[in-house]
Amino acid sequence: MAVLNENDFIEEIKFCISVSDIVKAQALLQYLNDATIKTQQRVIYEISKSSNKIALPILDYLYPEKINDLEIKDRLYDLILERFSSDSKLLIDYIKKEKTKNRSIYIKIAGELELEEAIPIFIEILNKDYDKNILTETLNALGAIGSSSSIPAIADFLYYGDEDLKISAISALSEIGIPSAVQRLSEAIREGSTTNLKIVDTLASIQTQASLEKLNGLLSSDMTDVRNRAIDHLTNIGDKAVPVLVENLKAENSDFLIHTLTILGKIGDETAVEPIKKLLHKHPKDSNVRFAAYEALGRLPSTKSAIRLSIGLEDPVDQVRIAAAKAIDKNLSNVILAGLKNIIAPADDNAKNVVTTFIDSEADNVFKNLIDIKIFTDFAVEYLSKKAHNSVQKHYVDLLHKINYANLAKAIQNGGVTPSVDKKLTIYAVDDSKMLLNLYTKKLHKMGHNPVVFEFPAKAIQAVLESKPDILITDLNMPEIDGLQLTKKVRASFDKKALPIIMITTQSDAVDNKELMKAGINKILNKPFKDEDLSAAIQEFVKK
Question: Which pLDDT score is estimated for 304?
Answer without folding.
Answer: 62
